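Colleagues,

Please find the record for the two-part complex below.
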Amino acid sequence: MKRLFIYLIILSFFGFVAQTKFDLQIPKGWPKPVYNFKRNPLSEDVVLLGRALFYDPILSKNNTISCASCHSQYNAFTHADHALSHGIYDSIGTRNSPTLMNLAWHKSFMWDGAINHLDMQALAPITHPKEMGERLDSLLVKLNRSKLYKSLVAKAYGDSIVKSEFVLKSISQFLLTLVSANSKYDSVMRHEANFTPQEKKGYVLFKNHCNGCHTEPLFTNLEFENNGLCVDDNLRDFGRLMITQNISDSFKFKVPTLRNIEFSFPYMHDGRFKTISAVLLHYTSPKCKTSSLSNLLKDPIKLNKEERVDLSAFLLCLTDKEFLFNENYSYPRKMFLNMTKD
Amino acid sequence: MASFFIIESKLLRYLKPEMIAKFFKYTLVLVLFFIIEKQDCDAQTIEMKILIGGHPLCLDSNFNLNQTDSVQITSFKFYISGIEFWNNDSLMFIEKDSYHLIDMSKPASFHIPLDMAFKFPYNQIKFNLGIDSTTSTSGAMSGALDPLNGMYWTWQSGYINSKMEGVFFSKSVRKSFEFHLGGYQNPFNAIKVVSLKVNSLAIQPIQIDLLYFFKEIDLNKQNHLMQPSIEAVLLSGYLSNCFAIKY
């Protein structure tokens, strides 16, 4: 009996820290993630807390807008069919919401790199008056009143209080699990499938003309580039310049990934192009060649009509259905169901 | 407690006598170490005194800068980080996890208790006014670094090293001023090292006289700074020059 008592005491110490580790698979041949997992080790309960927060409009001032409002899974976590994303009270923002995937490899966030760490990213849309319009302190009051979040935080962190660090780190954890690495392209690279002759031609064209910025395997070099788009007179968005105040950064935006491009339309930071073919046409004749234009675009990319079709065929090989329809990433129906009044 | 002794007696059964002797020797040394440490433990506290023109600063009360202009400070907060004690050229003490938010509206924040294990000589105190770039890029944190404290820019990552807000009256025209000074990336790195000479073992309070800050700027021309910039770097320098220890 005494021995049992001792074991119980020892076990109780572990009880608070023992969590089911979440095993994030790093795809073969990929670079080392940038995210420091040591400061925020993944656990299943924390990922679940983050997933609940991601899908819950409680994050917005009037409980109408969730992260998923502008980042829906079936659009590779961007905003379906909206050039500029809209938030609370039907406010229209100034940019097209970016896709969310493979974020553990990203060193900065937002089109202009304004955010330096994934943990801090959620703060921007939560507090932006045109996105969720909420204050961090009011949000914590709401979460601390919620039975659901009290119990999720207790499970995830063994704490009875919902703290901002928990909110931010758990959203990070959920986002870190959004790994897309199972497209047809990936299967071909693993020698499990073959490109069609057309896709193969497209891949060669991609290697010659696009890979400089949309670098494999992430299909982005994670840098900021000016791709020769003319500035929109209404938006007057100068991109990276507004962060660094360095004139050589004018009209530069973060290079987006091309993974799941089939579903992440419309394209560009302001969503001005609706189709892949419109994007390819732009690259064959960039309209505004300012001094900060990417070196790789100084000579326009030459692609004839047939080549553009081949290249598009390759780009469709970057669609990862397993990612787009992965139930672990979707709305946590069961969790929220328990909260409804019967 | 009883259960602890049960474990111990069971353990002793498996240990050799030499090992037990060794164990007790080390325990004795450890116990002595703690006793000595306890005696020498120097519960040092750094005190901050926020002044304006030599008088204690009161929030929301008027201070005459000159014959025509006066200021009212409504809020004043700043970060102190990386506290170090030096003796000539040798570093004697570094505070662990050294991040402190001093808030004019929270008098408890004027006292920074330091956890020093030993007494040591020193003649200089150094610390940062603001948060360094490594910490600024390390993600979410709690305590003094919790973004809940309102000292974090949500639209562009980075801590606000110091925040001063208020109103000023110039020839009876009322204007507001807001200085949110921060930025961790060059050329807009606004963190400032404050280094103060100390000439006795008891630390005298650190005085922060904001009059030196207001003497350097023209509030009529410059009254709103809310993002990293060359001006923010400059003004952070003026603020860091307000720190002094007087004997």
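The interface with chain B takes residues 2, 5-6, 9, 36, 39-40, 114-120, 123-124, 126-128, 136-137, 140, 163-165, 168-169, 172, 243-245 of chain A (CB under 8 Å).

Comments are welcome before we finalize the supplementary table.
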